TrEMBL record:
Residues 13-40 form the 4Fe-4S ferredoxin-type domain. It comes from Geoglobus acetivorans. This is 4Fe-4S ferredoxin-type domain-containing protein. One of its GO terms (molecular function) is oxidoreductase activity. It comes from the Archaea. SUPFAM superfamilies: 4Fe-4S ferredoxins.
Length: 40
């Protein structure tokens, strides 16, 4: 499963990410400036 290792970073430019509802769409992966997504 994919997840973001930086809880405080919103790769979509919003105030915060709701990690419970985040489905990590391809847009999220594409726009992540830190390549923070990792496989769990």
């Amino acid at each position: 499963m994919l997840s973001c290792r930086f809880d405080a970073i919103d790769v979509l430019g919003k105030a915060e990410i709701d990690h419970e509802k985040c489905t990590l769409c391809r847009r999220c992966i594409h726009y992540c400036p830190l390549s923070a997504l990792v496989v769990e």
